[in-house]
Amino acid sequence: MNIGEFEREEVWPDPDEMPVVEPEPEREPEEVPAWS
Amino acid sequence: MELDPQSYDFVSWDLLHLWGWTLPGGALLLDKPDAPKRRPWVEAEEAEADSTLWNAVLALAIRAARRWEGSGPVGVRVWLVDDGYLCSYVESVRWTQPMRAKCKRIDELHAAPESTCWCGLYAMRPEAATSLFDGPEDYWFAVGIVSLYGRVMSHRYGWRAEYARIREVWWIADGPTPKIDLYPGVTWHRVEAW
Questions:
Q1: Residue B111 contacts residue B121 (beta carbons within 8 Å)
Q2: d(CA B36, CA B46)
Q3: What number is the ipTM of this complex?
Q4: Mutation for B interface: A8, A12, A17, A20, most B CBs within 10 A
Q5: The pLDDT value given to residue B108
Q6: Lowest model confidence (mean pLDDT) among B12-16, B52-56, B71-75, B172-176
Q7: Among B155, B165, B166, which would you mutate to test the A interface (most chain A Cβ atoms within 10 Å of its Cβ)?
Q8: Which of A15, A17, B74, B157 sits CB 3.0–4.6 Å from B68 for a disulfide?
């Protein structure tokens, strides 16, 4: 398996232990005066 | 435990031909006229069929790798299937789930991988795997997708990683059967050629 020349070193977290980002709850649209 | 693969992939030459035009690199998967003959004692027709099957399995893995993108490096690699274990085909090391790299140099102890060494768990970048895998070889194989993490040495066509977690594996139905109990969390694809 030829992976080519070395470029850089990186550090990555275990993807299975990354915190789950909860989606923000949908907010009710703010009422805007009709004339604005 | 009786093998109960989660999916079966049936490879037809016609479908493969279609894929050949839709993958990165165009028809590269199918057209390797200058590739050296690894098994000169095999009739040319048989060698061609093996090569096509190899490339078909690789094509499946490359496509699936996209599903795992977004959580760090995701590579494509090849194993031998030996006594149910997935084994590195260069060093004959049995893989675990997850797998941690260990350098086998005896003259210099260091944590794997190291930028100045060649140790680590290898995987190809999916976009490079089409043209850089050598197969077929003279043994049974499995192709899979791995997530890489920990210290990762980034190379032009792939990576050498400290840790790898196997995500999906395609194995050839005619060959040795992997022991799926050894690799929790892996999605297995049994490949039948017809």
A1: no
A2: 15
A3: 0.70
A4: A12
A5: 76
A6: B12-16
A7: B155
A8: B74
